[in-house]
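thread: overnight batch results

M.L. [08:02]
morning all. the overnight job finished for the chain we discussed friday. pasting input first so we're all looking at the same thing
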Amino acid sequence: FTAVWLWPRDEPVTATTAAAATPAPVPPPRDEPPPRASTKPAEPEAPRDDDGGSTGAPAVAPAKSAPPRPRARGRLKVNLVPYARVTIDGRDRGQTPVDTPLSAGTHRVELYNPDSAQRRTIDVQVEAGQTASITAW
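M.L. [08:03]
and the structure it wrote out:
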């Protein structure tokens, strides 16, 4: 809110008259809680003509983008004798047997048997909707 004070042309503005014309600050009401911020997105404004009036055209909401598509998934089963610790893409998946869903694509599988010190790294292609298997060292 902005107050505009209009002085009569024949009355000079002095510090005394300006101070007398300044309204005292008004404290906020105590009974009302402070306004809450809205979590609802703002409505788009209607188009305006050059003088600031509405053109009468309805406001058009921006197009919403489609939600991201879920990535295609497949499965990987690892079952070895002797057993192995299984790491897929640097993430430990436990000891065999392992059956886990994965995104379609190529994955680096590391196998390690601490008893025999046997170690192997394999790149496995997982197809969408299919199951890839590792059954031999």
